[in-house]
Amino acid sequence: MIKEILEKTGALMEGHFILSSGKHSSRYVQCARLFEFPEYGDIVGEELAKLLRKYDVETVVGPAMGGVILSYVVARYLKARSLFAERENGVMKLRRGFFVRPGEKAAVVEDVVTTGGSVKEVIELLKEYGANVVCVGSIIDRSGGKVDFGVPFESLLKLDLPVYDPEDCPLCKQGIPAEKPGSRGLK
Asked: Which Pfam families does this UniProt record tie to the protein?
């Protein structure tokens, strides 16, 4: 069902992409396209909430941008608070008056996990506040099982999409121009 939603909304794209991690791929998942349609956002959020419910989450936190809407929808179905972390001078922060209490059970959610970099930053941020990060959830896991957050990781869909280091990218070697649709802007 999730893959069909991604295809129907145009969220599953083909081309030459530079991922937020700096790696390259011939496939990209732009979940913002999925969230153009609130009915699909609700389906995805509810399904992810079902997977995370067993962790007794009090607060759901998503990294901006990919986790902002997702954290809200998942939190709604979990009857939890929803926060998002965003970069300030390249560092993930809780801003806008957001806070977590020491011991608060938090879930970190992200639309797509490839290397898990943003999620790991949010986990560290929450630990600095004393939160108890109990799980991570994503719509799509494209990590190939290579990411370890130190807490359970639940995803709605595992996609084995090609990922290349820039120096080994066959698309670059073919001279195909790359798009950079991600939001981190670090690489």
From this structure: Pribosyltran (PF00156)
